[in-house]
Amino acid sequence: MNPTVLGQVTAVLRGRAVPYSRPGSRSAIVKQAIQGAVAVDGNGVAGDEQGDTRLHGGPDKAVHHYPLDHYPAWRDALGALPPLDGPGAFGENISSTGIVESRLCWGDQVRMGSVLLEVAQTRQPCWKLNTRFGVPDMALRVQRTGRTGWYYRVIEPGAVQAGDAITLVGRPNPEWTLARVIEVLYHRPLDVALLNGLAALRLPPSWQRLVAHRLQHGALEDWSARTGGG
User: Fold this and answer.
1) CA-CA distance, 8 to 11, in Å (whole number)?
2) Which of 20, 64, 143, 226 could form a disulfide with 27 if both were Cys (CB 3.0 to 4.6 A apart)?
3) Domain named MOSC: which ranges (predicted)?
4) What is the pLDDT of residues 193-205, one digit of tens each?
């Protein structure tokens, strides 16, 4: 396919893992924008850390992308909360304009600078957002609105910086926008036909288990540990 410009990088961000709100917990959700080009490889943005490597990071969550386009809607809903003053409120590595979940598809390959990335999964928001925003149900709000952001795996390492174009270079699953995936995940979670369609995609192991459980048991997994508290 011919390359198509989807949007533009507004900031590249990274953070250090520090003690967080729950005893024994750590998080790098608070990230700072980087000036100039920064290296990205299979582990993610150089210098970025994860507080809990069991749940964050790894090849299928190497780079987290959250659209700056969503910030006005969050300000309207929540007011002028300090995290929304600039990019990084959601712990994202890539902030951008012009591209949201309805314009990106599962498995899309995009180039930013010299880095080639592949959309690996949507974000399943967790309780650390509740603490970050001081809103007890923030993770559930993110989930319900579909403004979740997404993760990439790194196909070709390179460097990226603010101002780089986000160019679509491959789209193997045009019928599976991220918005549709989110609809299945949270709003039509036991639709067998849609789950079978999702199962045919290249899914990370945790997603394979999730879909298989729903299909086998006809029941929803428990979200409370992921979304509750903070």
Assistant:
1) 9
2) 20
3) 32-169
4) 999 999 999 999 9
Separation between Cα atoms, residue 151 and residue 182, nearest integer Å: 13
d(C-alpha 104, C-alpha 187), whole Å: 19
Output phi, psi for 167, to 5 deg: -110, 125
What is the rounded distance in angstroms from the CA atom of residue 67 to the CA atom of residue 54? 25
Q: What domain count does the chain have?
A: 1
The CATH number covering residue 40 comes to 2.40.33.20
CA 154, 155, 160, 164: dihedral to nearest 10 degrees?
-120
Helix or strand run (H / E) with residue 143: helix 138-145
Q: What is the pLDDT of residues 72-99, one digit of tens each?
A: 999 999 999 999 999 999 999 999 999 9
Residue reference for tokens 């790098």: 28
